[in-house]
Amino acid sequence: MANFVSWNWRGIKNKFSDLKDIINSHQPSIIALQETYLKPEDTISLKHYNLLHKHGIGNRISGGVALLISNSFPSSPLTLNTSLQAIAVQIHTHSLITVCSLYLSPNTPVDQVCFNNLVTLLPEPFIILGDMNGQSTFGTPPDTNNRGLQIEKLLNDHNLSFK
């Protein structure tokens, strides 16, 4: 059975022991990480996991997304032609599923077209894990911000569900 973990790490190198604890406790198939602060040349070595990462946008060491994929499941990275901080892989569990890690900075506006394009790039079925910095009526408490409204529109336009 496949299980997924998503976490905004705000710097994976500083919390490496926490990551190992999560792996030992939950043995996830995939760990989606946001705000990794990894540079393009950075690597992380974890026994039984492969790392796929995309560094943050710009010269600052901020943002960035990653997927840690268990060696127990065959997988294939996907090329996403998007300006969003997103990375995806297809993983073979009982069936083929696409898993995407997404980070949207609260300070960077995102065009609705970028959201729609991301969804069209992901082979179905797919799951998007991440920190989108949006508040919507789906949350508790039901506060809403512009990003949350964009996410709601994405869900409605593409007949997607939110869990």
From TrEMBL:
One of its GO terms (molecular function) is catalytic activity. This is Endonuclease/exonuclease/phosphatase domain-containing protein. Gene3D superfamilies: Endonuclease/exonuclease/phosphatase. Residues 5-149 form the Endonuclease/exonuclease/phosphatase domain. InterPro entries: Endo/exonu/phosph_ase_sf, Endo/exonuclease/phosphatase. The lineage of its organism: Eukaryota, Metazoa, Ecdysozoa, Arthropoda, Chelicerata.
